[in-house]
Amino acid sequence: MSSHQTLLNALSSIKYPGFSRDIVSFGLVRSAILEAGAASVQLAITTSDPKVPVDLKREVEAVLTELDEVSEVSVEIAVSKPKSAPPAQAEGSGSTGDKSLISGVKKIIAVASGKGGVGKSTFSVNLACAFDYVLNEALGSSAVGIMDCDVYGPSIPLMMGVRGRPTIEDEALIPLENLGIKTMSMGLLVDEDTPVIWRGPMVNKTIQQFAQNVNWGDLDILVVDLPPGTGDAQLSLAQNIPLDGAVIVTTPQEAAVSVTIRGAKMFSKVNVPILGVAENMSYFLNPANGEKDYLFGTGGGEKAAESLDTVLLGKIPLDSAIRQGGDMGIPIVKSAPNSEAAKAFYDIARQVLQMLA
Fold it and tell me: What is the pTM of this model?
């Protein structure tokens, strides 16, 4: 094992203050060099809390001095302020420091799939709308956002019925809002008929911009719609955004499940907890007799959940109204709140919120 990897392995035991993620998977370690017993580490963090760099420096020194190969430790931390100022704390509310690297956002979850064509983006917009419904039901208010990180095929603006360009205030993009959901997407920043032909570094830069230069205001929860697979966009997001968990979407058939399982295991590599699996297009409810027709087979969601050591959150029926809602920019949770599909989304939203709480 190289000396560089030895240092990284040790540093991966250090959690970023307030999170379950370590500083290595967060991408905060800029360099780690060990020469003749002298360890030199450089970190780059974004925070407005002066305690964070002090605590990190102390932990790095403590962890590395325990290594037999290390006789002295030098730690440099470059600190940058968040682009948008943190929301004001209510007097007497108390503050425990930065709980999110995206200012004002309480919880962030990713919706992911290993395979394209499983309805992940449709699932994302309906889940965001379901969060809005459930939070309003429980608290009387809600603040929900959705971030479309599928830079090559951004479909969230169409499905959420948002049009136009985001405005800029104090060097930060202001998300567009419709149906009570704040939305940011590459589809709002480029012309509709313009293809996005980018290599990895440009994708990474866009994800960083979405993480650092969008003023979401105060949000209860932000849903991040990931592109399918485990490429640059997924890894960049996992490193730049403090995800509280991921929901994995699959369809019942074996071809989707096997790819889903492989793709979902990426999250364990970057220390993001998998909250559960949702089976989309699970069955067709026959309007003639009310029976369920399992057009794509059965058991796929259960198999994926068992393989990933997580729970099956729910099963979403195959309903033409879901497709129609996406095409018209009114997700079925909003257009038909009493439908069986909408109720399935509400149930999944409640489970996820309970886990995050």
Answer: 0.70
